[in-house]
Amino acid sequence: MQRLFRVAAFATVLLAAGCSSVNPYYDASKSHHRPQGFANNYAPNPAYQRPVSTNTGFFAGWAGRIRNWTSDGAERAPLAAVPKVEPDLGWLQQNRSETALTWIGHATFLLQTGNGVNILTDPVFDERASPVSFAGPKRLQAPGVALDDLPHIDAVLISHSHYDHLSLDSLRALYRQKGGAPMFYAPLGIDLWLARHVTDGDRSRIVRLDWWDKASYRGLELQLLPVQHWSSRTPWDRNESLWGAWAVTRPGFAFFFSGDLGYSRDIQDIAARFPDGFDLAAIGIGAYQPVWYRNSHVSPDEAVRIHRELRVRRSVGMHWGTFPMGQERIDQAPRDLAIARQAQGVADDAFGVLAIGETLRLGPRAPAASGAP
After folding, report:
1. Where are the extended beta strands (E) located within the chain?
2. Model pTM?
3. Count of C-beta atoms within a 10 Å radius of residue 294
């Protein structure tokens, strides 16, 4: 009975939040724009289509998600504890010269860029990836670095609007951080949500980007990249805001953050624009079962393929071990990643996973080549 009440209450929240709107950024010259939102560049992989027998309609589909989110998740329990280490908070808070990546959990990373800039990706510190506190995917591991223990955050990169990537409470806390609010870099449409819900109408700290748009910040270039996914925070706002991956570059260093993505020709498009590849990448490896999830997420095998096609020198797997989003075991992705590495001839140290709270240190900033800006 209690679970039924929670399902009903959760559905009520979604119903109350629902609304439809016209895309204020609609540009008919852009193929991924629609009058009421956005679309992917490429058709989904037909091999990953949801079977007709399970495609039970809009409301039944959401009911299925709610049942899944309110289950105890025993079938997805890890076979071993998800690795976690104590972060070196003193070093993280003082670091200004070394390039480093710290996994806080799921898709949340602290990227320290080697030139004194601290960036957070998709900051989610909540107990649930959900609009309510009593239902939805529950956090299984505490954040590797608590919000209050972070160094001052200069910039936040947001990939899309799903609750495991866009947290109202986390963003509000960052906006109020000691030392001043960070800059928020967001896909089209999410800027409006930020202004409405986080910054009380102040747009001076928000930068909106379309696919391939660039922004400059303290010697860095931040670029929103097209990937195959979708957006929604209620059953009524599907694809009203844009989604994307991110590239963070400076002379001598390039970082790729995948956000959520399904494997598509967008990867070849990105590779063509970054012929020198990436020094470091954070690529999703979780929530790939059942198979039809893979039009929105990638399997470890596809993640290794992305690593290879983008010519990444070192990749870190994310989107696993924190929230039960897929139907595979919480710790299955790293095991499947090891199999995929071997099958594709990728060295173990070229694509691995971090423990929650662990920092990958890449050393001091490389000096710019002669004549470089």
Report:
1. 33-34, 37-38, 98-105, 108-113, 118-121, 155-157, 183-187, 206-209, 214-217, 220-225, 245-250, 253-257, 280-284, 315-318, 351-352, 359-364
2. 0.90
3. 21
Number of domains in the chain: 1
Which is nearest to 334 in space by CA: 284, 273, 268, 272? 284
Retrieve residue 218's tokens. 């303290």
Question: How many Å apart are CA 266 and CA 282, to the nearest integer?
Answer: 17
For 82, 133, 140, 182, the CA distances from 144, given in Å and listed in that order, are 12, 21, 12, 20
Q: Tell me if 261 sits within 8 A of 227, measured CB to CB.
A: yes
Residue 20 C-alpha from the chain's centroid = 24
Which CATH number belongs to the domain containing residue 300 in this structure?
3.60.15.10
Domain extent for 287: 89-362
Tell me, yes or no, whether 329 lies in a domain. yes
3-state class of 339 per DSSP?
helix
Q: What is the pLDDT of residues 306-360, one digit of tens each?
A: 999 999 999 999 999 999 999 999 999 999 999 999 999 999 999 999 999 999 9
Which residue type occupies 303? A
Which residue type occupies 80? A
Residues 17-56: tens digit of each pLDDT: 444 579 999 999 999 999 999 999 999 999 998 776 555 4
